[in-house]
Amino acid sequence: MARHKRIQLPGLIRHVMSRGNGRMRIFLDDQDFRKFGYILSDVVDEFDLECWDFCVMHNHYHLCVCPRRPNFSAAIQKLNGDYGLWWNARHGRVGHVFQGRFKDQIVQADGYLETLCRYLARNPVRAGLVKDPTAWKWSACAGLAGLAPVPAFLASAAILPRFGDELIAQRAGYVSHVRASSPAADAVGERFRSKERVLGDSAFKRAVRKEADAAPALDVAQDRRLDLPDSLIVLA
After folding, report:
1. Angle made by CA atoms 179, 27, 70, in degrees to the nearest 5
2. N or C terminus: fewer CB in 10 A for the chain?
3. pTM confidence score
4. What are the backbone dihedrals phi and psi of residue 63, each rounded to the nearest 5 degrees, phi first?
């Protein structure tokens, strides 16, 4: 079966997920988790990538990112490749660390971004690792909640204003959102487990496909922004 061609348009929110080969654990201790964070920070800087949210589990990770340049695939390949090489060397292993291609979904901001944040934050709760999402130290949740330092690579200003006007209210609103029981949000959250490539309403999907079709020969090396319609631009 032919592999689908990834959409490289910058300025779009992406949900990224990659898991260990054969679902094996690839984050075994604090040093593994910390090293992944260091590599992610380097990739964010090198590829001009905005990381809006993240959650790293024992055998996989999730990111919410927004590329500023049409180099999205190269950025995630660099992240997985560098971590895989380091992890194999540290643990005396050989072979693939990550399972196949990473998963990515383009996500509409309105109506979906907050649900994605909740889905990421609640991963450790669903796995039975913690009772409260803010207690998992390998995600953005505690930092966004104001309960831990915010990682330098995290663009928290892209998320928090969606939950209030002032910082205290924003943090409180975010915490209430990720802690709340919401069958409706959980139903939407299940779509982040699916193979849908674009999550949003029909108008958003049409706009993404139109822009992707209009730029079939995108030169990643050109290092430039595309002229996207206002409905797609989500960067300040």
Report:
1. 80
2. N
3. 0.88
4. -130, 150
What lies within 8 Å, CB to CB, of 62 at 6+ separation is 15, 16, 17, 54, 55, 56, 119, 120, 123
Residue ranges of domains in the chain, CATH in brackets: 13-211 (3.30.70.1290)
DSSP SS3 for 19: strand
* Residue entry with tokens 């490289």: 8
Block residue for tokens 């990538």: 49
How far apart CA 37 and CA 42 sit, in angstroms, is 9
Strands (E), the chain: 13-19, 49-56, 60-67, 103-107, 198-199
pLDDT (tens digit per residue) in 119-169:
999 999 999 999 999 999 999 999 999 999 999 999 999 999 999 999 999
Tokens of residue 175, six digits = 């915490």
Is 199 in contact with 174 (CB distance < 8 Å)?
no
Strands of the sheet containing 60-67, edge to edge, are 49-56, 60-67, 13-19, 103-107, 198-199
